[in-house]
Amino acid sequence: MPQKDPCQKQACAIQKCLQANKYIESLCEDVIQAMRKCCEVHAGENSVCCSGFAKEHKSTDTKTII
């Protein structure tokens, strides 16, 4: 049986929030932040849910450096 993604709960919460708020991200900032935090805690683990957040974090770091 495959292991459950450690941040799946947060990923589902983002989808639920966005759907409830007509996809206005600013209204879901708290659940998006919870997802980022979860992905940071579980960095290095094989998390499909965090794959987009890891890329976002790296591109943000690059922007900060420049």
| Classification by helices and strands | mainly alpha
* Termini gap: 44 Å
Average predicted confidence as pLDDT: 82
- Overall 3D shape: elongated
Major sheet attributes: none
Runs in which pLDDT lies below 50 for 5 or more consecutive residues are: 59-66
Count helical runs: 3
Return the string of H and E elements.
HHH
Number of strands: 0
Q: What is the radius of gyration computed over CA atoms, rounded to a whole number of angstroms?
A: 13 Å
Content of β-strand:
under 5%
Portion of residues within helices: 55-70%
Protein name: Cx9C motif-containing protein 4
Subcellular location: Mitochondrion
Family: Belongs to the CMC4 family.
Pfam family, one: CMC4
Tell me about this structure.
Helix 1 (8-20) packs antiparallel against helix 2. 62% of the residues lie in helices and 0% in strands. The longest helix has 15 residues, at 51-65. It has helices spanning 8-20, 29-41, 51-65. It contains 3 helices and no strands. The chain has a domain at 7-50. Residues 59-66 have low confidence and may be disordered. The chain is mainly alpha-helical. It is elongated. Keywords: Disulfide bond, Mitochondrion. This is Cx9C motif-containing protein 4. It comes from Onychostoma macrolepis. It is found in: Mitochondrion. InterPro entries: CMC4 (IPR027179), Cys_alpha_HP_mot_SF (IPR009069).
